[in-house]
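Translate sequence into structure tokens.
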Amino acid sequence: MDATLVTYFGGCHCGAVRFRVAVDKHEASDCNCSICKKKGFLHLIVPPERFTLLSGQDVLTTYTFNTGTAQHTFCRICGIHSFYRPRSHPDHFDVNVRCLDSDAIKHFQILPFDGVNWEENVHLLRDESNLSS
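Result follows.
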């Protein structure tokens, strides 16, 4: 594993869903679109090799809307959305920085993202320099 990677653990509120994520870029996006604003999701998009679901596959359920591309997974026990497959990067995982254990959030710079105007701004998310690679 690359020495610049920092490993964090996280999960849902009830503890049924647990995951591990390796991070090299401590930046997260605060999107103002309708679903992210209501969920309070802070986005950390990582490639699949940097995300490991440790437990809870059996309690995850999925919500989709609009194009159906984004797979909004959440714990069916407590309802928390700790990660999902985003529309902008359907082959990646998008981890909710608020669901990382203890005070991990303090290590992240939170950047605003105008998701209300998603179509005009998605290129900012797809710029590989903005992702943990």
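Note: Residues 118-126 form the longest helix (9 residues).
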